[in-house]
Automatic annotation (TrEMBL):
Protein name: Capsular polysaccharide export system protein KpsS
InterPro entries assigned: Capsule_polysaccharide_synth
Source organism of this protein record: Pacificimonas flava
One Pfam family hit: Capsule_synth
GO BP annotations, alphabetical order: polysaccharide biosynthetic process; polysaccharide transport
């Protein structure tokens, strides 16, 4: 029997259903809620209403009192999660981290210890090749069709109301902006949709038939940026990339900057991209854009993965599981504009097989069928032995 502590999960019932499955299997499950959105997803959880500065001591007491040997959470960089992970290591408890899938759709990431920049996946090409050669099967994806926007609206509405009503007076938003502020940003985007469609068409026409690079923006609240890059924010990274482009890119080269589809509209990216040969696209299809670009520049977005899959050169400025010699271009950015190097296609195939087999599970938290698949795949990993991605690669 194992003793689990669940912290925040993806919006919706997935974590609650997974906890119920573990309890039915004879394990002990505890859950902590930090605001009304968490309560909506898991009504019987324990409410933490204290200050965030007191959370490290609180979680240490909780893990010791309940003899927790397994920590389960979604994302490993939120401050409340970092404190719990540090405590779990003191107690020798296993840390199981779920996250959005590296390869989508139809999967979710599940790794022990950490994800993204904290992942145990190898960054050495030889190790990747040896590990991939020993993989017998890669689980197929399980996709759903139910939209998740409704879950997000309900989650963040209850989160905001719980703070205003002083039910959770000390809650801190890990995304930076408060839910109401973000919601107003999305409303503004919706009202400007027609104008943004025109801006998208103009940007794509501006690079049509011209040699150009693609820069997909990441969310400014993305912990990939905040924890796994030197720049620390998308705005800082964008300024550095535009400065390099202006100073070093060939005069006949253009740069297409694509806004993240889930951007809340609070930053005027179009104004920040106002520069010669730079075209800002508030919308558009990433895969269609990849069909015309000569290379991609990113900090550490997973948007680089479909680019690598197509054989498109990628320059990654931050720490990422795919920032591997032979996959991404190792030259300085100033040289990348002139001579972008394509990825090794065989190495990418091995990399993809390793990631899907060892760091992802099939399913989709947005629908009942997908959640059932995720739970079936996650249970053995949470309750049984752990398959280290490096163990069989030596």
């Amino acid at each position: 029997m194992k003793r689990f502590l669940f912290l925040q999960g993806p919006q919706g019932p997935f974590f609650h259903e997974l906890g119920d499955a573990l309890q039915r299997a004879g394990h002990v499950v505890h859950r902590v809620n930090f605001h009304g959105g968490d309560v909506h997803d898991w009504p019987r959880g324990t409410a933490y209403r204290g200050r965030m500065t007191d959370w490290p001591a609180a979680v240490q007491s909780m893990m010791g009192r309940h003899r927790i040997d397994s920590l389960v959470l979604y994302g490993d960089c939120r401050p409340i999660h970092r404190a719990a992970i540090d405590t779990a290591r003191i107690f020798g408890a296993a840390v199981h981290v779920f996250e959005e899938a590296y390869f989508r759709p139809g999967y979710m990431t599940l790794e022990r210890g950490g994800v993204n920049g904290h992942s145990a996946l190898p960054r050495d090409p030889g190790t990747i090749r040896r590990a991939a050669a020993r993989i017998e099967t890669v689980p197929p994806p399980v996709t759903g069709t139910q939209p998740r926007a409704g879950e997000a609206v309900r989650y963040y509405t209850r989160a905001h109301v719980s703070k205003v009503a002083l039910q959770f007076p000390h809650v801190r938003w890990h995304r930076g902006a408060a839910p109401l502020t973000e919601g107003l940003g999305y409303v503004k985007r919706h009202l400007l949709r027609s104008r943004e469609e025109q801006q998208t068409a103009k940007a794509q026409a501006g690079v049509a038939g011209r040699r150009h690079f693609l820069l997909p923006l990441q969310l400014d609240c993305d912990f990939q940026l905040r924890s796994h890059s030197e720049e620390g924010s998308m705005q800082a990274a964008l300024r550095a990339i535009l400065t390099s482009f202006a100073a070093s890119a060939p005069a006949d080269t253009h740069l297409l900057v694509k806004r993240h589809p889930l951007d809340n509209g609070l930053v005027n990216w179009r104004a920040l991209c106002a520069a010669p040969r730079v075209h800002f696209s508030p919308g558009g299809d990433l895969h269609q854009m990849l069909g015309h670009t000569v290379g991609m520049v990113t900090v550490n977005s997973t948007a680089a993965l479909p680019a690598l899959e197509r054989g498109i050169p990628v320059k990654a400025l931050g720490r990422a599981i795919y920032n591997v010699p032979g996959l991404t271009d190792g030259k300085p950015l100033a040289d990348f504009w002139h001579r972008p190097s394509a990825p090794d296609s065989a190495l990418f195939d091995d990399f993809r097989a390793l990631v899907v087999a060892k760091a992802q599970i099939p399913g989709d938290p947005g629908c009942a069928k997908g959640r059932a698949a995720l739970i079936a795949a996650a249970m053995p990993q949470l309750t049984g032995g752990y398959a280290d991605p490096l163990a069989r690669a030596a």
